[in-house]
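Order emerges. For instance:

***
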Amino acid sequence: MPETISADQDDGHVRLFHASLIWPLQLEPLSSDASGGRHWEVFGAQKDGHPWRRIDDEFTDDPSHFKERHYREFVSFLPYVQRFLYGEGRSRHGAPEDPAGDSPMRVFRRKDIVRLRLTLRKGQAPIELEIVHVDLYFFHDLDLVQLNVEVRGENLPLDQVRDVLFRFGRAYPSGWEEGGDGLHNVYLAEWLDADGQVIAKSDAAHRDKYLGFVCQHRSPCISEHWACLLRPLVLAHSDEIGELRYRLIEYHRMPVMAFLAVNQPRKLSREDWVRTGLSTMLHPNEALPVNEPAVVEFEKRYCQDRFWTDSAAGPNTRFVCTGNAFLVIGDAASPFFSDSERGVLAQFRHQYFLVFLISHLHRASLLVFSEVLVDAVNDLDIHNEVSVRRFKRRIRANFETFLRFTHRYWFHELSERPHVQAMFRLCSNHLRNDELYVDVRDEIREMSLYLDSDSQRRQSNTVVRLTVITILGLIATVTTGYFGMNIIAFAEGTLGERLLHGLVATGVFTAFVLFAISRSKRLSDFLETLSDEKLGFTAKLRAFLAALWGKR
């Protein structure tokens, strides 16, 4: 059924507003004494310490809860994407060794937060938005988590909605105004429970906290209301105690999706379209930069107008995607547009949400792979054997994980539905996922080639040493074989003499072999010199003496 919304608002109002933040975060590797092998297992085991609870998607729940919007979401994607998103059930007639395949995605949800109160600017009246859900997405084999916060509001001025999109969803202030208020972020954000009590609130005005943290750790500190939302996940460089730790991957501005149902969208001016579509990039108070390429080529770069048709068949809906933002703007008077079961709203909250989530999963995962490589190289000390071994383990583990990522998560096509696929390509192109994938793949390949060449070098050195020992042993073998191995009749002595002779011989030969191994490099150089027909006897003799006592 369509959402219940008022119809008596001016054209300058958004009659129905949905916004979803999708914030990727990098997870620190678990310590060796962790209570579980995977992040979500450790997270789920701490049930008494936090309000997060593991949820099963609608595809494994009671069939009576399975709605048509869930079915439409499922059939929108290609089979291999379906297996990634939802897993796969075992066939009734399948072989016993073919178990049901779980989705590599694990979702946790908290339900204690029901409202969000925002004071956008100092002195303004606060607005309250309904919390639709707050989720955490974990992924198998990836040290990555994605926070999803969806909010909902009705009958909000369009200017106010643009201000919300610009200011909300910032992990920390980018600076401070002269009065001490945070720059570009909301003046105050408060999470509210069912009784209206404040669970946590932002602290952007505490400038000393952010300055001191960056000065001490060379890492940004996030606002308290976001830190509270993520617990028991804790910031990697903070003093909080926690097994599960995270760090930021990109800029503090969180990717956002927004659904705007407005009256008569065709009467919006081009400036309104540009300001709304680029609301996360343009300050609400600044003049429109008309010469900026993003503004000049706004329709060409960011708009997808397949359904921007003034007819009953096309519900006057325009899709705008900048990579970091995904907006759907349409006619509130169209019942189909605001239908939460079959309409554009249902598609926005299901199909297009997953398109946006996968696009940012790709980018975040590739950035994490690159970060692991950089950290491994920075930690490498070629003069420390322990550091070298640790470097090799990390590089090979990263290479194996990247292979699994490529086959499990990396898609170029999600759907055969033209518009779903078009939005995925538009979002991925703006995020430069394909170029980033090629860069990371080449970096990992270069690291792998380096490890292979280093292994071959070590094997070559071993072969050289064995060759030298074999040549020296060949001399002894031929000599003793010529004399029949019995030059001295040791077998005729007493038992004590024979044991003594055996021990002496073993010691002499062991010392000889160890000496040959220690000089194997020099002796290999001597053998190479000896085989050179252009050198005379004197040069070869000098090479022999250098192999025994001199320098290489």
In short: Residues 1-55+105-341 form one domain. The first strand starts at residue 13 and ends at 27. The mean pLDDT is 83. Residues 413 and 421 are 7 Å apart (CA to CA).
